[in-house]
Amino acid sequence: MARFIRSVRDARGLDAVLVWLALGYLGVFSAFPLVYNVVISLQTVDLFSLASFERPFVGLQNYREVLGDPVAGTVLWNTIQFVVLSVVFQLAIGFGLALFFQQDFPGATYLRGLFLAGWIMPALVVGAVWSWILAGDFGVLNYLLRSLGITDGNIFWLSDPNVSLYSVIIANIWLGIPFNMILLSVGLAAIPRDVYEAAELDGAGAWQRFFTITLPLMRAPLGAVVSLGIIFTLQQFDLFAALTQGGPSNASNVAQYWSWQLSFQTYQISYGSVVSVLMIVFVVAVAAVYTRSTRHEQSY
Amino acid sequence: MTSPQIELEHVDKHYGHFHALKDINLEIGKGRFVALVGPSGCGKSTLLRSLAGLESITGGTMKIDGEMMNGVPPRRRDVAMVFQSYALYPHMTVKENLTYSMRLKRKPKEEREKAAREVAEITGLGNLLDRYPRELSGGQRQRVAMGRAIIRHPKAFLFDEPLSNLDAALRVHMRKEIRALHDRLGATSVYVTHDQVEAMTMADHVVVMREGVIEQAGAPLDLYDHPANRFVAGFIGSPAMNFVEAAVTEAGDAVALEGYDGAVLPLGRKLEAGRRVVAGLRPEHLSLGEPDKSQFRVGVGVVEFTGAASYLSSAGEPELTVFHAGRTEVRPGETVGLTIAPRHVHLFDPETGRRVG
Questions:
Q1: Chain A contact probe: residue of B96, B101, B106, B119 with most A CBs at under 10 A
Q2: What are the residue ranges spanned by the domains of chain A?
């Protein structure tokens, strides 16, 4: 016992304890669920077989059935639109704001800080706020559009199958802008000022400085923000729960929400696992790109 | 001499309430090498950055080649700058760094390649053209920064403390190299430094600044021989000039030092009798001698040897530093005699610091 205490105190034992704690945590809460999820996706698991460990192994049968489901096509296309549109607009607006706040004007840092407010709020709260803004009959957005004379009647943002997905996308873009802006601001602040001054003396105008200095030097932060944006967007669940519940009739359903519906609403747990396994494969690929892009960080 | 290439008239610069440049008047002839020197915060860098167009001036006029430059953006001024941090483009190779200005002007590739090779030849970067800045040593980065300026054939080179990030030996070497480059290219150079040795050794014309004001401008040796005031006298020369309070004697042709037993130093010139002054005595002008055959005597506090020379510090107040070429047998605690030639005794007004007589 005394030897054990000594080994903890002289830090070599402590090192091992800390490593095993972290590894144990990862094993129990990340690796095990991940692997178990894959196992479930290869078995028939429903309400009846959930409690027993003897579940029939069906191979790729679940995958064939999920991908053959007519809903799968809609969900895939919705997910692509959700991710691409969210990431593109979050990035463009976030980068624009980051560049804007990089300019030296009074109060720039405080105003930039205010943008974080939206990010601090839980997504469910954000969802509730947006559901009021987007509400069909009493929503603020409809009121605004009508008073400005842009539309005649009310648009049913959350229950019209043609627009419900875009309503969630708009809310998600709003939610993601602060994160993009702050991360890109940090990247911009790391570019030395005199590099811009040298470029200015070399004859570069504002646009040329942006395209030949800012963009290339922002490659790593931009890569990181895009990868994290894709991962966060694929994790976005609360907004769907608060706004449309994937409806009407799957018009705004996306993979992550569908997976939850299959597992915990209709209790087709194997099918839900299949969807999440497919998503994991994609996210791992994105994460690999992300770690690569941060490895090549520029040094000045 | 033809009309000056750079003309500054009554230039003022305010940062809010801070008056960074106060009524600066300066003319720089074509092909001259001018050093702006002074302690940090004296406005020398602000003046250089104003010339580059990176800072706007709040008063006065600034002309390059007779053209009004107030409000003209940096890229239309045709001046090149070498930054203290070098400010190389980290994502570009040496070749791309050098030819960035040509790429912006959409010069054809062959022309860019040729220019890059020429400049690499001049600056000794020949085999480094495909390296990235992070793969270069400090001295090599310095050369890239200079090459990037040279390739443009600008009207003027602006240097902002370019050598302060290099180690001492390399600094001495680059000093000579920059000066040789200047002579070869014949372009006007304005060089900012806080190191008076750099200013003295490199420039044809030294401008000493303090608190936004030009204290004195002139040829390096002029500043050394005839400093206009106590500040310039103390700033130029190393080790720094000794200052001793003194009074002009009754006869008016000598000064009596305060302390050092009222030692009397002849001046070889006439001044108002009884006037209070500050005597400036350069360490290298004080010569050691036998105590009873010298003008005055001091107790020795510290003796330092550098090999080639010895530095003595007196034990008394105010402390005197004496430079002695070669070695000396004098040891701390002994008393030595000091003598100084009348023409080497500088006198300044105790209140204004201005040179007297």
A1: B101
A2: 60-295
pLDDT by residue (tens digit) across B94-107?
Answer: 999 999 999 999 99
How many A/B residue pairs have CB atoms within 8 Å? 66
A220 contact residues in B (CB cutoff 8 A): none
Instruction: Name the residue among A192, A212, A216 with its Cβ closest to that of B87.
Output: A192
Res. A228: pLDDT tops 70: yes
A36 alpha-carbon distance from chain centroid? 24
Q: List alpha helices for B21-104, DSSP H.
A: 44-52, 94-98, 100-104
Nearest CA in chain A to B87: A195
CATH class, A60-295 region: mainly alpha
Residue A297: what pLDDT?
A: 52
A227 vs chain B: nearest CA distance in angstroms?
A: 22
Fold for domain B6-235? Rossmann fold (3.40.50)
Percent of chain A's residues with pLDDT above 90? 28
Structure confidence at residue B33 (pLDDT): 94
According to DSSP, residue A138 is labeled T
- Contact present, B269 and B253 (Cβ < 8 Å): yes
Residue A8 has pLDDT above 70, yes or no: no
CB-based contact, A299 to chain B, within 8 Å: yes
Amino acid at B80: A
List, in order, residues 6 or more apart from A177 with CB less than 8 Å away.
A90, A93, A94, A97, A115, A118
Angstroms from B254 CA to nearest CA on chain A:
54
**pLDDT surpassing 70 at residue A296:** no
List the domain boundaries for chain B: 6-235, 242-348
Predicted confidence band of residue B2 (pLDDT cuts 50, 70, 90)? low
Chain A CA closest to residue B150: A202
